[in-house]
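Input record (one chain):
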Amino acid sequence: MRGESGPLQVSTGTAEKRKATEFHDRLKAERWEQGKLGAKPRRTWEEAVLKFLDESAHKRTHDRDKSILRWLDSVLGGKYLDEIDRTLIDQIKATRAKIATQSTANRYLAVIRTVLRKACYEWEWVDRVPKVSLFREKDGRIRSLTPDEFSKLLSELPPHLADMALFSVATGLRQANVSQLEWSEINLELLHAVIPSEKYKNGKAHPVPLNEAAVEVLKRKVGEHPTHVFTFRGKPVTQVSTKAWREALIRAGIDNFRWHDLRHTFATWHRQAGTPTHELQRLGGWKTLSMVERYAHVAPEGLQVAASRLDNALRGTLWLRLKQRETDHDSLFTNEESGGS
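The corresponding structure, as predicted from the sequence alone:
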């Protein structure tokens, strides 16, 4: 087939002559509009996916996104971007929620939304995109240990996992950032570490001030490996939720506890110690304050100091109010003795 601006190397997808002719005529019309009227070429979902994956190859979630996009291809493959509407997206939303959880469905919807928004607002392939509505998720699970429980757990863990667990609670770092920690990211003289942006969840470099507990762990690890901090039998640790971890939890009498809950423990202890929300946000590298405020309920007494700041101002007002009540009482008593009016 030959279009207005050159040969069209596209399969008709049908053996029927009439449909093939219609397909050919439609493509000719599109090519004419693009060439003569300056109309945008219609782009497919596959084209958008390929461009998205190429631009996001550096992302930490790249492999997860590819897995999601493979599944979405069964639904969106072969469609033009302008054919993807709210009805189709709602169908995907309902299907994924039945297959797994609403939280998982949201991950799929978020990828669709990202690709469509890039196609519209960055690449200018389409003029508008449908709204992608996510399920409303409940507040994240919060499970933490008491200092006594954590001490019991450390005593039951093998040394390499105990060091990693202690460092996790001391710094609040996620499991991947602890297991992948390298000596090049640490400055023991300045008591400081920096997790590079490509390794950190929010895509920004995360500075980590090192407290005494963290430094003691690092000093024990010096010289064990040329590049990585935490190792087992001479190799960097890649798995932490192992049989040894699970058995240690059982021996310590701790249930319903995951490795990530060490980060919750870090945040909970900080709140109980009176660390302000904005400081905890920076220490833990949370992107928004709302992600930190969920720990506020674990230490309501931390607000006692703030509430007490009004005591001086209210003390004078309270004294005047009490004096007024005494005056009113004395006046009433005098009136009763004299018969009143």
